[in-house]
Amino acid sequence: MKTPEDAYSAAPFVPAHADLAALREAAARCRGCPLHRDATRTVFGAGAAHARVMLVGEQPGDQEDRRGVPFVGPAGKLLDRALAEAGIDPGEAYVTNAVKHFKFSRSGPGKRRIHKAPSLREMTACGPWLATELALVEPELIVVLGATAGKALLGSSFRVTQVRGTLLEHEIHGRPERLVPTVHPSAVLRADDREAAYQGLVSDLGVAAGALGR
What we know:
Shape: globular
Radius of gyration: 16 Å
Number of helices: 8
Number of strands: 8
Distance between the termini: 52 Å
Strand order of the largest sheet: 1-3-2-6-8-7
CATH architecture: 3-Layer(aba) Sandwich
Largest sheet: 6 strands, mixed
CATH topology: Uracil-DNA Glycosylase, subunit E
CATH class: Alpha Beta
Strand content: 15-25%
Number of domains: 1
Structural class: alpha/beta
Helix content: 25-40%
């Protein structure tokens, strides 16, 4: 018997033959899964329209949800620093997330919004937006930031710890892609040894820079 969750999909909201600006405008009206109900706004991808590298994270965080721009919080600032140190200009990249709405619970004094990982159904529902971004940007390389992004792109068996810092080739949405997985920058911020975790991220991004011929 089908449940309402089986029908989750952003596909009916994705316009045909749209550019990134039109796609972003359409995404603001997406009701493809229930996450839009509590989020402040859709947080679509941003950056160079024909970037050589696309960075794909999990979902917007609290600050991204409030501002409507991906990777503008502490994790985003750390990512920009790591990219620059690895030899990739953050201004030449396109950044986005597998899921375009902030999923959270409320806890503690003031009912602070606490990040919750999106479900596989929610990632699948949001997949048409990411597929269209990939088709329009046509990046030479995808940097996969964390396990959730990896599962959205490569399937539920993906384990970031097993393949981080390696150059992979995989068909995604009917298009051959090159990918370099690494940890999400928020994991660096949570690490006990933050400096070691940061250097690991920079090292992985160095592999991406090498794949781009930097």
